[in-house]
């Protein structure tokens, strides 16, 4: 991994040729997305997210981070402009009564608790840029999150800066803005796997190729956005998979290997990715890669 980056979850517009976007969205939501749960939990604990929190999730994808915040009592709005397939899954999770909803929200709250939320406190999933989430009848957001770890693609910090420029006017003065990224490469076992993406995509590295995260990536983005840093932390987020096939599907769902697929072909990427996982495969066949992620808390001036 996010990876996770400004594309730890799949981008609709940037998808590799001949990608089944629905299958990719399912792989993300069923396999890969849960790897960042410790990061979400650490941020919510530190900021005491709960009743009274009004959260705007940028690049919300299939909505797991939103669901976790809502289960703590927060009023949540998710916004994303890249993948209708992921947003459909987010709606199933967060809007059980809406068309296309599942009717059974996941998480600790019973369905009746969700049905009583209305008006400004009702969960919202918005397709479009951050400004599409503006609601003049609702209070300003007290928390803005960008949970897709930045700093792993050549241009992802620029994209995040643009999102923040559009999102922070919707937040209250002093609101927390959370940025996330990969930890030091030497503390992320997945780094060795991601180098496969960098090597295979070399001809296209200027157009979205993977690169190792840098120490001050998050601080630089916050500074350019005019935000005031207010603390940071590191969280262990191991990537664990049932087996190599699951690991390959999960990692491909991040979009980090799209440039490699475009530069070579899917068969070669699958083969070399599977080979790079061998050192991380345990005797029982599972794949385990310890990783560390960073988060930065900044404040809206």
Automatic annotation (TrEMBL):
Gene3D superfamilies: Vaccinia Virus protein VP39 (3.40.50.150). Residues 95-117 are annotated as: Disordered. It comes from the Bacteria. GO terms for molecular function: methyltransferase activity. The keyword 4Fe-4S does not apply. Keywords: Methyltransferase, Transferase. InterPro entries: SAM-dependent_MTases_sf (IPR029063). One of its GO terms (biological process) is methylation. This is SAM-dependent methyltransferase.
